[in-house]
Amino acid sequence: MPLPVPVLPEGVDPAWLPPAAFRAVGGRRTLIRGSGPLVETVHGEVAQACQLFGGRVVRDAAPDGAYDLVLGPGAEDLGDEGFTLAREGGTTTVGACGGRGLLYGLFHVVRLGEDAFRGERARVVHRPALALRMLDHWDNVAVHPVMGQVERGYAGGSLFWEDGRARGGLERVRAYGRLLAACGINAVAVNNVNVHETEARLLTDRIGEVARLADAFRPYGIRTHLSVTFAAPMLLGGLLTADPLDGTVRDWWAGATRRVYEAIPDFGGYVVKADSEGRPGPFAYGRSHADGANMLAAALDPFGGTVHWRAFVYDHRQDWRDRTTDRARAAYDHFVPLDGEFAGNAVLQVKHGPMDFQAREPVSPLIGAMPRTRLAVELQVTQEYTGQQRHVCWLGPMWSEVLRFRYDDTRVGGLARGGLVAVSNAGDDPFWTGHPLAQANLYTFGRLAWRPDAGPREVLDEWIQLTFPDAPARLAGGLHAVLDGSWRTYEKYTAPLGVGFMVQPGHHYGPSVDGYEYSPWGTYHFADRDGVGVDRSAATGTGYAGQYGKPWSELYESPDTCPDELLLFFHHVPYGHVLRSGKTVIQHIYDTHFEGVAEVEEARATWASLAGLVDPARHARVAERYEEQLRCAREWRDQVNSYFFRKSGVPDARGRRVY
Ligand code: GCV
């Protein structure tokens, strides 16, 4: 029986799957062959499209050439997710061995639209580069007094949890799964890595709620994962220890995990934040993080599950007076000595930069230094430090730079053998992501996880085509104009030259140049009357630059060779230091901050000119957010420029206003 396509609740935006995106498929004669639950999902999708656009869908007849589209088992082994696409003699054929492959093949045809049905097409094999393409939701089951329902969430409440329990109706979760499948995501962790007491119980007596979410996701090929607390044996099991080498603790995890699999046979595994920002972990027992991760890996192994163990371990109670401790070094220092010690089903999940999802950071040296460990790279789609979905900041170009960065001959996208993971930006907002244009970030993440070397602009084209299928060229041009350069624009008006932070403490929105300067979080810029930046060189600084292999260690070591955009991350330099661009640091700060604001003004005007080309509700929402972005960008400009003018006493060469 074809599985009905999820019905969107009234007023919820279809995002990149509006009905019109299915016009090309829905107007055709389609044959679907094969069996299995995901084939029923494919059938449901095509049937709905045919109903809308007058086509016809048939199951399991002989392919006699009378079909425009045939979706069915392929001749070769492409794994569960791969598919082939070809067109010959007027028939477009998608072949796959697994139901997931067939579903991805169908969405590929949807993306191609009419092009999928034109001329001839040589057979092309499509396979995801990374087996795991996962979203972590930092959703709390119960509203947290400080962090709210979704930690760092800027799109309303949780899609999964409400009033302290799993939502009653899960049609919207099914719809979310559908959107995710259409961009290639195949795993979701449904609760916050900061596992508070209510959330901890999801592992045991409340696993039924997680099972319901898993049921909603499964038809779209998405596995469900759960964040767990390392202290669960004590908190939930009444044990006196959570020591990973203690037999009773190991037995407790084995039993708890068996019961999870009884409830969710295709459960993906655990996500763990341990010894990080106050979370419990193996250090309390004098054990290593490999001991901790391997204990959970052993519990998951009989069922084929994976533990995602986060490498975000650093001292968040640092004394700002102590110049020898460098937060950027921490993950590498903790984990490199453990390379080779992690079990095969333990994945070390590493943030893409050494700090915390700043608008500009170098790529984490840990990613290039763990050849005997399965690594997953973690990105942040939710815009914690990049404008909180009030600012337009399309992160595709940043992620693409990260994924293409090379250690020796291998790109980060190739080193992420344990997958690509991102913190989701979706919530129960009618536009899913608060800012309607932030949908582009979610879509781009999925597509880059499927193909890390894809060009981000091509991916953006896909998103535009799908989201606005009937868009005139002027709309596509306008969307590119406001999105393409938006990350660099954001970077221009915020913290300069890679130095990072300078955000308001706690909620991380808006400027506060010294907000973290005397705090315990290890996020300093060290500006004084002569200069600014952190000396992380091996020769005179914290030694962080030496954590890279060549050529990066040499390149970052000297201010003469360090790329401008990272200069203040790696070096403390005088305001008069001349950048590779030929400008002094202080003039660069002034210029970029004025330019950044001017670019926001221009983007706002471009968006205004698109009125009438997009639906009024979306246009109004974006327009309103541009007002806030502009207000905030001006605030950034004036605070940063005035701060550095006051510190340095050097006026702007162009005589513009500082305060
Ligand atoms: C979930 C940053 C965020 C925290 C987040 C943490 C993490 O510090 O501000 O909200 O906690 O990263 O990645 O664990």
TrEMBL record:
Transport in keyword set: no
Entry protein name: Xylan alpha-(1->2)-glucuronosidase
The keyword Hydrolase is annotated on this UniProt entry: yes
Transmembrane annotation, as ranges: none
Domain Glycosyl hydrolase family 67 C-terminal intervals: 433-656
Domain Glycosyl hydrolase family 67 catalytic: residue ranges: 122-407
Stored Gene3D superfamilies: Alpha-glucuronidase, C-terminal domain, Glycosidases
Residue ranges that the Swiss-Prot or TrEMBL entry lists as coiled coil: none
PANTHER family the UniProt entry points to: ALPHA-GLUCURONIDASE A
Gene from which this protein is expressed: aguA
Organism annotation: Streptomyces djakartensis
Keyword annotations: Hydrolase
Top-level taxon in the UniProt lineage: Bacteria
